[in-house]
Design goal:
Elements (H helix, E strand, L loop, with lengths): L3 E2 L11 E5 L5 E7 L2 E6 L6 E2 L3 E8 L2 E5 L2 E5 L4 E4 L5 E5 L4 E7 L16 H7 L4 E3 L1 H15 L3 H16 L6 E3 L14 H14 L6 H8 L3 H12 L3 H19 L4 H7 L5 H12 L3 H12 L11
Parallel strand pairs: 1-5
Antiparallel strand pairs: 2-3, 2-11, 3-4, 6-9, 6-11, 7-8, 7-10, 9-12, 12-13
Amino acid sequence: MQASREQIRLPSGHSFRVLRWTQNLREVESVLAPDRSESITGEGMHWHYHGEMELTMFAAGEGTRFVGDHIGLFAAGDVVLLGSKLPHYWHTHGRSAGLSVQWSFPCGHAFWAFPETSACNGLFHRAGRGIQYTGPTAEAIREGLQQLVISSGTLRLSGLLRLLGLMVNAPDSNMRDLSTRSFALADSAIHQDAMAEVMRYLMGNFRDEVRLEEVLRIARMSKPTFARQFKKHSGKTFSDFITHIRLQAACRELVETDRSVLEIALDCGFSHISFFNRIFRRILRRNPTDYRQIKRLRATGGNASKLIPA
C-alpha cells in the first residue's frame, strides 16, 4: 500500500530525535533536554514511512501493529526497530504512551568513520523487515530509551550507541522479524493521500461488508491500478489484507471476552463460520477454541504445552 512519507526535521544541535507521547500518537513531544521539549504532530496513527530508522517502545496501550506486510497485535512493553522507508502504522485502542528515537546514518555519514560501527551494517539491513525485541533485550532497550529522555549532549549520544550495541548483540531468541520481506518505499508522492484515506476507511469499517467499489471511489483509482499499488506496497492482496485485519480483531476478542466463537466471527466481518474456522486454522495453525485456551493459560502463568501442536 502506498504510504505517506513523513518529513522529519532534526532539532538544531541534535544528530537524532527523541520522541515521547502520553495520550496518543498524534500529540507528540520532541524531547530536546531533560527539562525542555517542543510539541509536534505525530504520524504514527496512519500508514506512513520516513527515511530515518526508528526504535519505538510502548509503555501503555494496545492495538494492531502494521509493519511492511506484517499485521499483528501489540500491547504495553512492545519494542520494535524499523528500517529506513519501511511503512508502518499502529492502530491503538484508546490511550497509549511511549518513546521513540529516530536517526539517519546513510553511507558516508560520520557515524561510519568509527570501525566499531561496522557491526551495525547487518542490523540496519535486517531492520528493513522490522524487528520486534523481546525478553531481557527488550527490557534493557526500554530502560535505555528512558535514559535518553533524562540526558543530553554526549551522555545522550552515548545512550544511543548503547542502544545500538544492545540490538546488534541481541540473541536470536530475543529478536523476531516482522515483515516477510524487506520494504524500502520510493520517494514518489503518487497516491499517498488517497491510500491514507483507504487505510482509515478499512480500519473503521472492516467489521461490515467492505465493498471494493467504495474503496476504489475513495482511492480515485481504477481497479487494476489499485490492485497493483496495494499488492506492491502492502505485500498482500486487498482481500487477504481485510482477512488479516478481521482475524486480529477476532484474536483479541477470543482472549478478552467470553463471547462464543460464532458471535465473534460474525461481529468481526466473517459471514460464514466455516470460512472463519478454516482460515483461522490455516493462518494461526490451531482452532479458535484452542487459541483462546492457550492465550489465557499463558496470561495466568499456566502450562499450555499440552495444547500446542508439536
